[in-house]
Amino acid sequence: MSRRARVVLFALVAPVFSVLFVLAARGLPSFGSDFHPYGDRAVTVATVQRASANVVSSVNFDQRAVDTLGEEFILFGSVIGTVVLLRPSPEEREIGHPEEGRVLPTTRLAGYLLLPVSVLVGCYVIAHGQLSPGGGFQGGVVLATGWHLLYVAGRYAALRRAVPQTVLEVIESLAVAAFVALGVAGLGLGGGFLANMLPTGSLGALLSGGTVPVINAAIGVAVAAAVVLLLAAFLEQTIILRRADHQDPP
Hints:
This protein has one domain (54-243). Helices cover 66% and strands 2% of the residues. It has ten helices and two strands. It has helices at residues 3-26, 37-49, 55-60, 65-85, 105-127, 136-147, 149-152, 156-162, 165-189, 212-240; strands at residues 92-94, 241-243. Strands 1-2 form a two-stranded antiparallel sheet. Helix 4 (65-85) packs antiparallel against helix 9 (165-189) and helix 6 packs parallel to helix 10. The termini are far apart.
């Protein structure tokens, strides 16, 4: 896009955005007021009605539902941009057997032992997002970090075989699509994006929170796949790819 086109686009969009921003700001409670509708709604609607002990998670999927969708697509777009920017260029080639280097036996043992523990903790954080601090975003990062212990243990080839890039891309796309589908279903059945449409259960029970656990599961899978894709793209660029005219040291 040329500079002139950007200026024209800004001139068209900025006034509309300014008017909408002023109208939205005028509807806010005055500074220092004792009227806090959002706080009341967070407790009575997002938590009590959803039977979720995690207020933050409930607010993310209720009052800030569309904002949460935007956050998810920021990560989704970041992964796409990174994979595109780090794709092999015509002058790069893939080396057949990368040198993995020497890894201390204690480091390798710790990596293999902590991998199942990290996966279990990640799944626990995702599954209990409606009961305690945590949820899909946090649990997804724990899952992805645990998976990369395969690389810490000194086996990049094992990491590459365990998480093929094509499979990860499909998994992330399906998880993001599931999140959007849940939001649209809530919009059609409940009157709002991500509105609850499942039985809420009892407060404090594992099967509670309505759609919150389902949304956390979709986000956890999407975040885990996205983080693994990001790290795998950087590792591949560092370890696997070499310029055609590059000579590895003897």
